[in-house]
């Protein structure tokens, strides 16, 4: 299995989950426990502002994209008080935990303009990608979400950020029928085990899309399980924002 670092051109010095070797680990930032009711707590503002500065060091963006992301985060905090869009414990780290984590996909598919995000949930990575794609000729991001409340939030996020997104309220497996035109890249984050994700994405990949799936530390086990059902040649990119991985697939074929 070929493994690459965040830039895609260096071999990794260790396998996922291996201890000791590789880069020196750094302590994770302290996370303040926040509940839904305090999503708009003004005390959070300075914490989130500091987290934003760190996130934009990891994934720099244009001023225009930053403005769109600011509007998105403000809307998310407003809706979070009544709709559970992200884990409350991650609110102080919205920018590093969610925004930068999503933005890293842009560099891994630098020529992609047409995206499909499966199970968009609170908008990661779909809305973030739409914010980053705004202003690029021919850009579009399809966001597929099966929960009506979250789909409503996604539509509002696309509206307030003036980003090129289209929201589909649909079961994930129905996405192919609802997405018209070619797709360059299909994404998913915290949606399903890898072998199931490949099944969802395979019709789009058959038409030329590549896949970028954000995964956690157990990626090796997921790849082993996926290989029981699919012939795949994955490339792994270590996440810029933590201990996770991005699984890149350019072709898949069902076994048997």
How would you describe this protein?
- It is a single chain.
- The chain has 256 residues and is α/β, with parallel strands linked by helices.
- It has one domain (2-6, 33-254): 3-Layer(aba) Sandwich (Rossmann fold).
- 38% of the residues lie in helices and 18% in strands.
- It contains eight helices and ten strands.
- The protein has helices at 43-58, 63-80, 94-108, 126-133, 148-161, 175-178, 194-206, 219-226, and strands at residues 2-4, 114-118, 140-145, 165-169, 185-189, 210-215, 230-232, 235-238, 245-249, 252-254.
- Strands 1-8-9-6-5-2-3-4 form an eight-stranded mixed beta sheet, sandwiched between helices. The chain has a two-stranded antiparallel sheet with strand order 7-10.
- β2 (114-118), α4 and β3 (140-145) form a beta-alpha-beta unit.
- α1 packs parallel to α3 (94-108).
How would the blueprint of this fold be written?
Blueprint: E1 2-4, H1 43-58, H2 63-80, H3 94-108, E2 114-118, H4 126-133, E3 140-145, H5 148-161, E4 165-169, H6 175-178, E5 185-189, H7 194-206, E6 210-215, H8 219-226, E7 230-232, E8 235-238, E9 245-249, E10 252-254
Parallel strand pairs: 1-8, 2-3, 2-5, 3-4, 5-6
Antiparallel strand pairs: 6-9, 7-10, 8-9
Helix pairs in contact: 1-3, 2-4, 2-5, 3-4, 7-8
User: Could you tell me the strand content as a percent range?
Assistant: 15-25%
SSE string: EHHHEHEHEHEHEHEEEE
Based on the structure given, which CATH architecture is correct? 3-Layer(aba) Sandwich
Mean pLDDT: 86
Number of helices: 8
Provide the spatial order of strands within the biggest beta sheet. Answer: 1-8-9-6-5-2-3-4
Distance between the termini: 21 Å
Give the % helix: 25-40%
CATH-defined superfamily:
Vaccinia Virus protein VP39
Query: How many domains make up the coordinates?
Result: 1
Report the uncertain regions. Answer: 1-29, 34-38
* General form: globular
Main sheet, how many strands, which sense, barrel?
A: 8 strands, mixed
- How many E-type strands? 10
Radius of gyration: 18 Å
CATH fold-type name: Rossmann fold
Function: Specifically methylates the N7 position of guanine in position 527 of 16S rRNA.
Family: Belongs to the methyltransferase superfamily. RNA methyltransferase RsmG family.
Keywords: Cytoplasm, Methyltransferase, rRNA processing, S-adenosyl-L-methionine, Transferase
Main location: cytoplasm
């Amino acid at each position: 299995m070929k493994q690459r670092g965040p830039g895609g051109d260096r071999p990794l010095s260790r396998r996922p989950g291996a201890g000791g070797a590789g880069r020196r680990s750094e302590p994770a930032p302290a996370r303040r426990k926040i509940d839904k009711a305090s999503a708009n707590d003004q005390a959070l503002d300075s914490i989130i502002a500091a987290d934003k500065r760190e996130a934009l060091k990891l994934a720099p963006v244009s001023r225009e994209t930053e403005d769109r992301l600011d509007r998105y985060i403000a809307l998310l905090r407003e809706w979070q008080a009544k709709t559970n869009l992200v884990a409350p414990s991650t609110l102080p780290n919205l920018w590093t935990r969610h925004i930068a984590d999503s933005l890293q996909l842009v560099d891994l598919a630098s020529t992609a303009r047409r995206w499909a995000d499966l199970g968009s949930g609170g908008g990661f990575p779909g809305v973030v990608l739409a914010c980053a794609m705004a202003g690029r000729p021919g850009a579009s991001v399809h966001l597929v979400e099966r929960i009506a409340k979250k789909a409503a939030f996604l539509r509002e996020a696309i509206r307030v950020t003036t980003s090129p997104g289209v929201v589909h309220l649909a079961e994930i497996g129905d996405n192919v029928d609802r997405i018209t035109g070619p797709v360059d890249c299909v994404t998913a984050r915290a949606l399903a085990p890898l072998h199931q994700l490949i099944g969802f994405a395979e019709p789009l990949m058959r038409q030329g899309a590549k896949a970028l799936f954000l995964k956690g530390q157990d990626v090796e086990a997921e790849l082993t399980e996926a290989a029981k059902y699919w012939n795949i040649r994955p490339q792994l990119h270590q996440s810029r924002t933590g201990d996770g991985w991005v699984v890149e697939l350019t072709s898949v074929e069902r076994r048997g």
